[in-house]
Amino acid sequence: MLSLLYQEGPSTEGIFRRSGSAKTCKELKEKLDSGAEVDLACESIFVTASLFKDFLRNIPGSILSSQLCDKWVSVMDQGNNEEKIKSIQRLIEQLPRANVVLLRYIFGVLHGIEMRSEENQMNAFNLAICIAPSLLWPPVSSTPDVESEFTKKISSLVQFLTENCCRIFGEEITSLFGEI
């Protein structure tokens, strides 16, 4: 999925914003869940993007860990960018290794898409609005006002992560997928 999003996402206007066919997504998710072979290259890239966001939303406790939720939310309230980057790196060190590896690939994809935002209309802000709710959610349900404020803070964090991913994850993030 990520390889396809890396290949096609940068040249696709509204990637992650437009939804794939709900029926197709449901059918493909059922096939994937059953272990069946699925050739996503034959599907709309919007279906792949929708399936990927669904996959992220189904990671128990979220990829950024709901246990660290308060710490993630408070990162953007810290001083300058250097302090924010150091805080983010400390939080990343507390995540399971599998989460960190997946995050690196996710932000490698988002970086590639953002680099061509003139073409795809998906700058870091737009990407964050679409992806943030799939990366972290509060451990308990709350009022709509609290959830709205939470979503704004997490979107701001994901925008910052996207814009600074090379400094946070290392320059090699731009070549994780090799020459595709």
UniProtKB/TrEMBL annotation:
Pfam families, per the entry: RhoGAP (PF00620)
InterPro entries: ARHGAP20-like_RhoGAP (IPR047886), Rho_GTPase_activation_prot (IPR008936), RhoGAP_dom (IPR000198)
SUPFAM superfamilies, alphabetized: GTPase activation domain, GAP (SSF48350)
Gene3D superfamilies: Rho GTPase activation protein (1.10.555.10)
Keyword Calcium found: no
Alphabetical UniProt keywords: GTPase activation, Phosphoprotein
Claim: NAD is one of the keywords in the record: no
GO molecular function: GTPase activator activity
Biological process, per Gene Ontology: regulation of Rho protein signal transduction; signal transduction
Domain Rho-GAP: 1-169
PANTHER family: RHO GTPASE-ACTIVATING PROTEIN 20 (PTHR23179:SF28), T-CELL ACTIVATION RHO GTPASE ACTIVATING PROTEIN-RELATED (PTHR23179)
Name of the protein in question: RHG20 protein
GN (gene name): Arhgap20_0
